[in-house]
Write a structure and sequence with these properties.
transmembrane helix, 2% strand, transmembrane, 16 helices, two-stranded antiparallel ribbon, mainly alpha, membrane, single chain
Length: 374
């Protein structure tokens, strides 16, 4: 078979620009909670909730892609080249899981993390007859985090099992696939890895892929390894920055704190570049049908509205909270000025607001204002 006679039928539901844009945008959106937290220098409960929402949404969509992978491979047939593209995009989908756990880690490392303060406010709210008890709230938070963890572990394991299935024998992959198409892709398809052109049928690539996916097949280990790498890179970068404290006057800027989010961001960029260059390198092997817009691409673009809506809610909620904090700080400073003025007037013998409403009422008023600023 010559390269001129080798033609892989286009599959716009996999290689279409609409599908790829939706997956790329979802991957970058998953970084938003971490970037916002690092800009502020603290991780709030809202940041954690936003990360949980983004991770859950993206992982559910990622599972849908892998289930479609299995169904098509077992029924209509899926060319091995298209299967490799699905696996590559699945790695992009799973970066949000690593981002979530990195944000959860930053919540305990960065100064001003509000997890403790939030727990205290929840406990006080429950003691005052608020809806729910501290125990119920704590259990619900743990349940959500375990759900995100479970989704991430299962997605990595399922993706690894599909990778082992494909790379075990790329010529015979897929029950309903045309073996001539698999053989065509194996002979002439090229994968770009770190700027080097690697043939799809390379035995070294096959062995490396089998070892790699075998490692990520084990639940727990598949998530521990990437997190360990991210923690190692984070600690290396952290040594070159001054240790920030809540009372430090020389806290590192936002661009320095962004080192924490840089390793997974670089990983996402590398995966994206590999995916794009591989598709461009093999464009001559596919027909023009792969570029047509169809049901799958339009559906993917419409489903992109879900993470975009979550992103808009996150940004809007942060703006509202920031305005509230600024207003409370202004009110607190006004009370402090009023107290200083009252003290000076009392020394001079003048009648003050404290004298009119009583010291106990005045004290309670100032305490309530100050507590509202925290």
């Amino acid at each position: 078979m010559s390269i001129g006679s080798c033609q892989i039928p286009g599959n716009p539901d996999i290689t279409g620009i609409g599908i790829r844009i939706a997956i790329y945008v979802q991957g970058f959106i998953s970084f938003t909670p971490g970037i916002l937290a690092l800009v502020d220098g603290k991780v709030t409960r809202g940041d954690l909730e936003a990360a949980e929402t983004q991770a859950t949404t993206n992982l559910v969509l990622a599972f849908a892609i892998l289930v479609s992978f299995i169904v098509q491979a077992l029924t209509l047939g899926l060319v091995n080249y298209h299967a490799s593209i699905v696996l590559s995009m699945s790695w992009l989908n799973n970066t949000n899981t690593f981002i979530y756990f990195l944000i959860d880690l930053l919540a305990s490392l960065l100064p001003g993390a509000s997890s403790k303060g939030t727990s205290k406010r929840c406990a006080a709210h429950g003691a005052n007859g608020g809806e729910g008890t501290p125990t119920a709230r704590t259990r619900s938070k743990i349940l959500v985090r375990r759900f995100v963890l479970l989704l991430g572990l299962l997605h990595l394991s399922l993706m690894a099992s599909l990778g082992l299935w494909m790379w075990s024998n790329i010529q015979t992959f897929g029950n309903g696939a045309d073996t001539s198409l698999n053989d065509c892709a194996a002979r002439f398809a090229i994968i770009i890895i770190l700027g080097k052109r690697v043939h799809f049928s390379s035995e070294a690539l096959r062995i490396a892929s089998l070892v790699f996916y075998a490692i990520f097949l084990v639940p727990g280990l598949n998530l521990a390894l990437p997190i360990a790498v991210l923690l190692g890179l984070y600690n290396i970068c952290r040594r070159h920055l001054p240790t920030p404290t809540s009372t430090s006057k020389h806290r590192p800027g936002a661009y320095k704190r962004s080192w924490a989010i840089l390793p997974p961001f670089i990983g996402l960029i590398l995966l994206l570049v590999i995916d794009v260059l591989t598709l461009e390198q093999n464009a001559s092997l596919q027909g023009m049908y792969g570029r047509e817009w169809g049901f799958g691409q339009i559906l993917a673009m419409l489903l992109l509205l879900v993470p975009l809506r979550n992103l808009a809610e996150t940004i809007l909620a942060r703006r509202i909270k920031q305005r509230q904090r600024d207003s409370n700080l202004g009110l607190k400073s006004g009370v402090e000025v009023e107290e200083d003025a009252n003290t000076e007037l009392e020394v001079r013998g003048a009648t003050t607001l404290k004298a009119l409403i009583g010291p106990l009422v005045y004290r309670g008023l100032t305490l309530s204002i100050r507590s509202g600023t925290h």
